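ugh ok fine here u go
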Amino acid sequence: MDSEWLGRIRRLCLSFPDTSERDSHGAPTFFFKDKKMFVQYRDNHHGDGRLALWCASTSDVRSTLIQSEPEIYFLPPYVAHLGWVGVRLDRDVSWEEIESVVGDAYLNKRNPKRK
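structure:
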């Protein structure tokens, strides 16, 4: 597990109000109000070779991200059908992009009607 990335992601996710962290499905996972998962940190999930985040999103936003930068954004297993998007941390992705996607993930769970 890349502890530098995890530390940065942890600080970002926990900077939002009413957030917490616990392991879920074997990975560090961030929740809104201890119930609604909004980000999961994945390192080589089932040998896929990716260091990535799985982030709550909407299908429209996810499609736009994947079409614009398919080397960074992808359909994550298990949660893609819920509109989630994967973000590869092991590619040339800016911190500003990560902050934006994670911020949107948080807002999607805090205000589910904003879709």
